[in-house]
Specification:
The chain is of the alpha/beta class. It folds into four domains: 145 residues, P-loop containing nucleotide triphosphate hydrolases (Rossmann fold, 3-Layer(aba) Sandwich); 165 residues, P-loop containing nucleotide triphosphate hydrolases (Rossmann fold), CATH 3.40.50.300; 58 residues; 132 residues, no CATH class. The protein is built from 17 helices and 25 strands. The strands form six sheets. It has a six-stranded parallel sheet, sandwiched between helices. The protein has a five-stranded parallel sheet with strand order 2-3-1-4-5. Strands 18-17-21-20-19 form a five-stranded mixed sheet. The protein is globular.
Length: 555
């Protein structure tokens, strides 16, 4: 802000991993600018920005707040419309940099390579400022993403009060099979006790279905009180943007006593000051566990976080070895921006944006070989020491930065003559959640899926009131396509390579609320979904190594 006040031509680009977080931080920025009494024009630029406002933002915006997806497909390919920004870009702020790991992080590093290339073309050299939650290697991760060494400032000045971490292992119900009482039901019992005592609580579950089941259970607290059921809300992927903004606002205002969420709320969206966090099952990493538990007690107040274990081996290991959790540092953030498939995609995008020169590198020494390959494929043309884009396609459209499908199904409520869209669902989740005859639950309201138009990507649902929910059975097959590396260590084979994961929903069960009895089933006839990815595996011999028992493997 100070740099922009001193030189009104200066520009800054703020990058947040999600639109929700960008909107949230915009409100904070506006508050700060108003308090400072300065004239700094700040705008969000994402898929929801009206076309009528876009030209003004490109010309007048001192601070442009966006996300990696919009930078990748909406700003960099159209840089000639953004000359004011790129000629005067002084700062690039990347928030939540710990989120940029794996495939998403590898894409992000290439998007930043393209950004820096365009900045060089316009003669600007912005300073990069990155913000991270607790991970083991923030400096290394940030350096790989922005392509240069960074200075790490790790003095945490954020206010934090006393926090109690409680590991809770539900009672055993079948000792022979190692099955314990449902973590959902135990988490519900703890949440009810807290909410009834007016303690604002957030409950994290691992799936969208579990969010809705828990919301259904907790709404019972207020079922006999007029207009009070809105004190319990869900928060997950698939809710429409306006609904998510409304939930966030009511959380900040203290109107909601209990919110049930997937890891969508791990990110730093401001939802006010909560007192207790309940994690329904181990989140999968030490880093995510600390992030979720950090959602409670964000100011100088006493807070608590419960980890309620399921019967799964990893949950049981963590819950019975607390010294492992508390003694280990959070995981490293790892990525590979030079993965050939990812790199090739972004070199295409970079060539579309600006021609490559004969001596130019894009991350790797073999850039010129890749450009020659693209010329042979008639995608580029080499003329006068430059490589020019010659395809008729728009390459950014072919890349999903998050490796998820861009194809969303919309969910349409046909209960009343006036149909309305109530939610959406990505292609991978659709066979599980919105197959025909499924009970689709949206913030505790039940709907039955009457028709799924797979080609048009529309699910038609009607409101119902039943005493069960549906849970689809997913058959997963894993095939090794190519082995990159394999070695043996104490009779255990360790390998890595390219794999294909094929997932097929074969049937669904009807599960009774509260008792979780299976009261029926039905078939699901939808296409198989496959995905190519890289994997690491361990292969145990039929005869176990000396000193190792079957129980050791199970535990």
């Amino acid at each position: 802000l100070d740099a922009i006040v001193k030189d009104e031509e200066s520009r800054a680009l703020f990058l947040f991993p999600t639109k929700a977080l960008a909107q949230d931080q915009m409100a904070e920025l506006h508050e700060l600018i108003t308090y400072a009494g300065v004239n700094v024009k700040t705008f969000t630029y994402d898929g929801d920005t009206p076309q009528s406002a876009r030209k003004a933002i490109r010309q007048a915006g001192h601070i442009v707040v966006t996300n990696p997806d919009m930078l990748h497909s909406g700003i960099l390919p159209h840089h000639t419309k953004w000359t004011k920004l790129f000629e005067n870009l002084k700062f690039v702020i990347i928030d939540e940099i710990h989120q940029y790991r794996g495939v998403f992080g590898s894409h992000m590093a290439n998007v930043i390579r393209r950004l820096r290339r365009i900045c060089d073309f316009y003669g600007s050299k912005p300073q990069f400022i990155c913000c991270s939650a607790t991970i083991a290697n923030p400096g290394e991760l940030a350096g790989r993403i922005i392509g240069e060494e960074v200075e790490v400032i790790d003095n945490n000045g954020a206010p934090s009060g006393e926090k109690h971490i409680i590991f809770y292992n539900p009672p055993v119900v079948n000792r022979e099979l190692g099955i314990r009482r449902s973590s959902i039901m135990e988490a519900r019992r703890i949440a009810e006790m807290l909410i009834k005592n007016s303690i604002q609580t957030i409950i994290f579950t691992k799936s969208r279905l579990n969010v809705e089941v828990m919301v259904t259970y907790l709404k019972d607290i207020y079922k006999d009180r007029m207009n009070q059921e809105d004190k319990i809300r869900g928060y997950r992927g698939g809710y429409l943007p306006n609904q998510r903004r409304e939930i966030e606002r009511k959380m900040r205002n203290g109107e909601i006593m209990g919110i049930v969420a997937t890891n969508a709320l791990e990110l730093g969206v401001d939802i006010g000051s909560l007192e207790v966090c309940i994690m329904c099952g181990y989140p999968g990493t030490i880093s995510s566990t600390w992030q979720q538990s950090g959602r409670a007690g964000r100011k100088n107040t006493i807070s608590a976080a419960f980890l309620v274990a399921s019967s799964s081996p990893i949950d049981q290991y963590i819950i019975t070895h607390p010294e492992y959790f508390f003694g280990k540092s959070p995981e490293n953030g790892l990525l590979n921006p030079d993965n050939l498939a990812i790199l090739l995609s972004h070199i295409k995008c970079a060539a579309f944006e600006l021609p490559f020169t004969d001596d130019e590198k894009f991350g790797v020494e073999t850039t010129q070989e890749i450009l020659s390959f693209l010329e042979e494929a008639k995608i580029l043309r080499h003329v006068a020491n430059r490589w020019h884009w010659m395809s008729e396609t728009f390459p950014a459209d072919d890349i999903s930065l998050r490796s998820a499908s861009n194809e969303n199904f919309i969910i349409i409520d046909i209960t009343n003559p006036e149909r309305r869209v109530i939610g959406e669902c990505d292609r991978f989740a659709a066979p599980m959640l919105i197959h025909e005859e499924a009970i689709y639950i949206h913030e505790g309201q039940q709907y039955q899926v009457e028709k799924l138009d797979y080609e048009e990507k529309k699910a038609y649902v009607r409101a119902v009131d039943v005493d069960y929910y549906t849970d689809a059975n997913l058959a997963v097959e894993l095939k090794v396509i190519d082995v990159f590396k394999e070695e043996e260590d104490k009779n255990i084979l360790k390998g890595s390579g390219e794999v294909m994961v094929a997932a097929l929903v074969t049937m669904f069960k009807k599960v009774k609320f509260y008792t979780h009895e299976n009261i029926g089933s039905g078939p699901v006839n939808l296409p198989e979904i496959s995905m190519h990815t890289t994997s690491y595996w361990l292969s145990f011999p039929e005869e176990l190594p000396e000193g190792m028992t079957q129980t050791d493997i199970q535990n």
